[in-house]
Design brief:
Elements: H1 4-13, H2 18-27, H3 33-42, H4 55-67, H5 80-118, H6 124-175, H7 177-183, H8 193-199, E1 206-212, E2 218-224, H9 229-239, E3 250-253, E4 256-258, E5 276-281
Parallel strand pairs: 1-5
Antiparallel strand pairs: 1-2, 3-4, 3-5
Helix pairs in contact: 2-3, 5-6, 6-7, 6-9
Biased composition (Acidic residues): 57-68
Pfam families: UBA_7, UBX
Domain UBA: 2-43
């Protein structure tokens, strides 16, 4: 569980003012990053509160505002797509801030190491090797974060497309209710209550995916059946021993199937990967 300071740092890395972050956490009963972020997005145009003694100053400030005939700006109501787009931008900003901070820390460590080397604590050959390793680590971290950002975009894009498709279908059913009747299957033959309860297919909300890596190792994770296949791809990228140069591709052995790029945007439940499945990472 994240500490209060970690939650505050995450929100400030996204570009929110410290005092506004404190207010958002207080307004959402300190429930974490996501509720506070929702509140901040809805009150994006609110003025930054001044630091002080908390509730007393807030009440005094509100009373003063009412006396002067001013009113607080109403909360901004965002559509689902606008909210998701803002979340993507904020996530990109957070990743960028974290990368800049880590790069700065690593660069500082390299500078300190160079100073120790110049003072004669290690040989010049060891110095060059160490610097090369540090720069390689920085490059690998940058590649990993770039892949993480790309996967996050794909995931949100797939969710937006799914929402659009659902709204189109709902609108079509509303305009043409007769089509719904025509598409319905004929009623099944009467059966006993026992047989109907046995034949009823369970509705799964999660699926257990086992991923077999090229080196023979395996990864296991539980996903929501609504998540796209690209979410599994992101999980592999974040947990593999080596940083991949490009997103990995999956296949199944039984039945044998190689997933196309379009299928990575489809939910796992529509790809017959529920309630469990084994995916093989193609070499």
């Amino acid at each position: 569980m994240s500490t209060v300071s970690e939650v505050m740092q995450t929100l400030m890395d996204m570009g929110f003012h410290e005092e506004k972050v404190k207010l958002a956490l207080a307004e959402t009963s300190w429930k974490g990053v996501e509720p506070a972020m929702e509140w901040l997005l809805a009150h994006i145009n609110d003025p930054v509160p001044s630091s002080g003694n908390g509730a007393n100053e807030t009440e005094e400030g509100e009373a003063s505002t009412e006396e002067e005939g001013q009113s607080k700006p109403p909360p901004i109501v965002l559509t689902e797509e606008e909210r998701k787009e803002k979340l993507v931008k904020l996530e990109e900003l957070r990743i960028q801030k974290r990368r800049e901070r880590e790069d700065s820390e690593k660069a500082s460590e390299i500078d300190k190491e160079k100073k120790r080397i110049s003072e004669g604590k290690v040989l010049s050959t060891i110095r060059k090797s160490h610097e090369d390793q540090e720069m390689k680590k920085i490059a690998e971290e940058q590649r990993r974060e770039k892949l993480e950002t790309q996967m996050a975009k794909e995931r949100v894009k797939a969710q937006i497309e799914e929402d659009k498709q659902r709204r189109r279908e709902e609108e079509e059913r509303r305009r043409n209710p007769q089509l719904v009747i025509q598409k319905k299957a004929p009623p099944p033959p009467p059966t006993t209550s026992t047989s109907s309860s046995v034949d009823a297919a369970p509705e799964y909300t999660q699926t257990r995916i086992q991923i077999r890596m090229p080196d023979g190792s395996t990864l296991v994770q539980t996903f929501s059946v609504k998540e796209p296949l690209s979410a599994v791809r992101l999980f592999v990228a974040m947990n593999s021993k080596e940083v991949p140069k490009a997103p990995c591709n999956f296949m199944t052995s039984f039945p044998k199937k190689i997933f196309s790029e379009d299928e990575y945007q489809r939910p796992l439940e529509l790809l017959d990967l529920v309630p469990s499945a084994v995916l093989i990472v193609k070499k």
